[in-house]
């Protein structure tokens, strides 16, 4: 589409103060769109400069907008965020699961509350600095992996539906992060070297356990070895532990090592959480069978097309954001959820996390690991 055709179209870009969303806005402006920036404030509790950078982020957004010559609106979604994302986050942790709030934030805030607000502002489309792609194919919108596989964020966007995707633009779909930084630098955007934000949106850089303790008080219980049942120590609360966790257990390695070989020390890993008895079960060694899963059940399914994929076709799936794509088959899909079977065992499959299914570069959707 030529830039002349774009001049009548308004795109509202979610500006976070980072390099990605800044370059997304810049590219759309260069393509001739009427671009308006929107800065979302999603978190207000204890919003201090120590951990939450929203004040500095807003300063950066205003500086970028000034450089690009675009208007910016600041909108507060803290109430929606607390009700739709944070309450669910706490509920899941209390139940002994490990949720992924960024998935919920995208579905409920960035592509629902933000989208609704942008449409009310007269937007034809909304755009973000996510590394993902969208295309129309046979009258249907598809969510695609980004060209930069190391930055691909389609995993976090897998709950988007047809209506949301039809309004979404991802200007960074075909770009590599290094090129995005270079573009920002060449355009004189001071955020070119700003470091990426890490961690969960509302927690920022603060210690996770310390944050959680303020909302879910510690409840001590036993740490037991799964194989023998022997007590190895005490935990502060199952809420603060996740399947596959190695650090922070404070029970040391296994003296005497494996197979009776002196001097070898295997690490302990969390393998099971028994909420009823408040017991944390651990196993010795990364490759313990209890940490390997040949299949999983997923609930609360969300498919991008609105239809479930075919069963018994070969797809790939991710059981966590950083896990490699694992070949799999969907064995069953019904009202209860679906069963996914892997070609090779998956390590530390964690209840509460998202399993996301792909067919080549197309993200089909997924569900919550039960």
Could you please describe the fold and organization of this structure?
The strands form 3 sheets. A 6-stranded antiparallel beta barrel has the order 12-15-14-13-16-17. Strands 3-2-1-4-7 form a 5-stranded parallel β-sheet, with helices on both faces. A 4-stranded mixed β-sheet has the order 9-8-11-10, with no helix packed on it. The protein is of the alpha/beta class and 370 residues long. A hairpin with a 4-residue loop joins strand 10 and strand 11. The protein is 25% helix and 30% strand. The relative contact order is 0.12.
CATH class of the largest domain: Alpha Beta
Helix content: 10-25%
Q: What structural class do you assign from the helix and strand content?
A: alpha/beta
CATH-assigned homologous superfamily of the largest domain: HUPs
The assigned CATH architecture of the largest domain is: 3-Layer(aba) Sandwich
How would you sum up the major sheet? 6 strands, antiparallel, barrel
Instruction: Provide a count of the helices.
Output: 8
Mean pLDDT: 92
CATH topology of the largest domain: Rossmann fold
User: Please, how many domains?
Assistant: 3
Adjacency order of strands in the biggest sheet = 12-15-14-13-16-17
Rounded Rg: 22 Å
Query: What is the β-strand count?
Result: 17
Series of H and E elements: HEHEHEHHEEEHEHHEEEEEEEEEE
- Separation of the first and last Cα atoms: 44 Å
Strand content: 25-35%
**What are the low-pLDDT stretches, counting only 5+ consecutive residues below 50?**
260-264
Name the overall outline: globular
């Amino acid at each position: 589409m030529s830039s002349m055709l774009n001049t009548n179209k308004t795109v509202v870009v979610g500006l976070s103060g980072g390099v990605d969303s800044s370059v997304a806005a810049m590219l759309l402006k260069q393509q001739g769109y009427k671009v308006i920036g929107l800065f979302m404030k999603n978190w207000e509790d204890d919003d201090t400069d120590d951990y939450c950078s929203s004040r500095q982020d807003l300063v950066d957004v205003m500086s970028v907008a000034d450089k690009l010559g675009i208007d910016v609106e600041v909108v507060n979604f803290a109430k929606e965020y607390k009700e739709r994302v944070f309450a669910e986050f706490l509920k899941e942790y209390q139940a002994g699961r490990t949720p992924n709030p960024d998935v919920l934030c995208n579905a409920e805030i960035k592509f629902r509350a933000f989208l609704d607000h942008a449409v009310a502002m007269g937007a034809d489309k909304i755009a973000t600095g996510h590394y993902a792609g969208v295309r129309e194919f046979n009258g249907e919108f598809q969510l695609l992996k980004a060209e930069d596989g190391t930055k691909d964020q389609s995993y976090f966007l897998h709950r988007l539906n047809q209506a949301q995707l039809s309004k979404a633009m991802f200007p960074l779909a075909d770009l590599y992060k290094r090129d995005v930084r270079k573009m920002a630098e060449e355009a004189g955007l001071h955020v070119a070297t700003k470091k990426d934000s890490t961690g969960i949106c509302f927690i920022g850089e603060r210690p996770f356990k310390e944050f959680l303790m303020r909302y879910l008080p510690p409840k001590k219980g036993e740490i037991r070895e799964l194989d023998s049942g022997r007590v190895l120590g005490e935990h502060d609360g199952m809420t603060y532990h996740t399947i596959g966790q190695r650090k922070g257990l404070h029970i040391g390695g296994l003296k005497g090592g494996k197979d009776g070989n002196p001097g070898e020390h295997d690490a302990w890993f969390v393998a099971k959480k028994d909420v009823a008895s408040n017991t944390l079960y651990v196993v010795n060694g990364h490759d313990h069978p209890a940490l390997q899963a040949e299949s999983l059940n997923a609930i609360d399914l969300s498919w991008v097309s609105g239809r479930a994929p075919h069963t018994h076709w070969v797809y790939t799936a991710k059981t966590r954001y950083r896990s490699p794509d694992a070949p799999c088959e969907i064995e069953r899909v019904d009202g209860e959820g679906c069963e996914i079977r892997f070609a090779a065992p998956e390590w530390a499959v964690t209840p509460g996390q998202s399993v996301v299914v792909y067919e080549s570069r197309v993200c089909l959707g997924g569900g919550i690991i039960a």
